Automatic annotation (TrEMBL):
InterPro entries: Quinoprotein_ADH-like_sf, WD40/YVTN_repeat-like_dom_sf. It comes from the Eukaryota. Transmembrane segments: none annotated. It comes from Citrus sinensis (Sweet orange). Residues 299-322 are annotated as: Disordered. This is Anaphase-promoting complex subunit 4 WD40 domain-containing protein. PANTHER family: OS01G0649000 PROTEIN, OS03G0300300 PROTEIN.
Length: 340
């Protein structure tokens, strides 16, 4: 867990040696209560596993606070802390949603959010409502479980969903698709209008969106592609016919890391971004993005023949030709001007 103020490592946790290998499907992190200083507060890390277990760890002490098993067979689709960290909202792939006391794991309430399996979820509006994705998108209240909006993508199962504050804009992506679909929503009138499809060269592995910071009818969208490139769009309006080119973001290796890779016969200077999200949007046309990149994904021994093939692929990949390189490091934060 890193601090986004200065990029320093705040805390870390690893599965104890000797325990069975576990596949984690989602996580959430949050301070409990008002004390947010490292030496005074409780920093909880909640982990959801692919078999439906939930673990809560105090990462500042390494103590396992509690573990819940068997409540969500099939796995977890989403976790989020709320109420100053005192509550943990949980969505299972089986369609069950629940609220738990974060420090003890006691279930406060539980309800059936969907009769269909859930592939992805997104929490918004200070965790008061949430979006569920399957073959359709549903917006529900976390307070009473009531549905406030529903619409169908009409293209098949959805893999990812993200929503801006107030669910004014919803972004979806289907399995294997190389584009994001934009939806403009109005919860008060229960209407949904289809916006533009934003093309990518590769399928996304993470998406995020926020409302325009200056009050206009627009949105800022971020996507990380499986190729390790991040895309950023600034849509002034959300209309069916709107066309816009994204800013493409890559991360350059530090010189020491590049020298290390060269020592194993790999001459790439770009590493893969594996996760990112929008933090702050400012009215003066800047946004702050925090992300994580994977150095080891590029550090592999290659023969001269494979190096030659890699160079050919790089030369033909427009992502590599048009991207702007930004700061490096395991966890990076940077600002850039909004680009349309």
């Amino acid at each position: 867990i890193w601090s986004t103020n200065d990029g320093s490592l705040l805390a870390e946790w690893k599965q104890p040696d000797g325990e069975p290998v576990v596949s984690y499907s989602c996580l959430a992190c949050g301070f409990v209560g008002k004390k947010r200083r490292k030496e005074r507060g409780t920093l909880l890390l909640a982990l959801g596993t692919s078999n439906g277990d939930i673990l809560a760890v105090d990462v500042l002490t390494g103590e396992m606070k509690w573990k819940s098993t068997g409540r969500h067979p099939g796995g977890l689709a989403g976790l989020a802390f709320a109420k100053k960290g005192r509550s943990l909202h949980v969505v299972g792939t089986n369609g069950m949603a629940s609220e738990m006391k974060s420090e003890m794991g006691e279930v406060i309430r539980e309800f059936k959010a969907s009769e269909k399996p859930i592939s992805s979820s997104a929490f918004l509006c200070e965790e008061k409502i949430f979006a569920l994705a399957s073959s359709e998108v549903r917006i529900l209240s976390l307070e009473n479980g009531e549905e406030v909006l529903k619409f169908s993508d009409d293209v098949g199962p959805l893999q990812y969903v993200s929503a801006s504050d107030g669910a004014k804009i919803i972004i979806t992506a289907g399995y294997g698709e190389k584009h994001l679909q934009v939806w403009r929503c109005d919860i008060s009138s229960k209407t949904v209008n289809k916006g533009p499809a934003l093309s990518m060269r590769h399928s996304p592995v993470a998406i995020d969106c926020k409302n325009s910071p200056n009050g206009e009818d627009g949105t800022v969208i971020l996507a990380v592609a499986e190729s390790g490139v991040a895309y950023s769009w600034d849509l002034k309006t959300v209309s069916q016919d709107e066309k816009t080119n994204p800013a493409k973001i890559t991360v350059k290796l530090k010189k020491a890391d590049a020298d290390q890779q060269n020592s194993v016969n790999v001459k790439k200077s770009r590493t893969s971004i594996i996760a990112a999200r929008l933090n702050d949007l400012e009215a003066d046309g800047q946004k702050t993005i925090t992300g994580l990149h994977d150095l080891e994904s590029e550090a592999a021994t290659a023969s001269a023949q494979n190096e030659k093939k890699s160079k050919k692929r790089a030369a033909s990949d427009p992502d590599l030709e048009t991207t702007r390189d930004v700061v490096d490091g395991e966890c990076f934060t940077f600002k850039e001007n909004l680009i349309t």
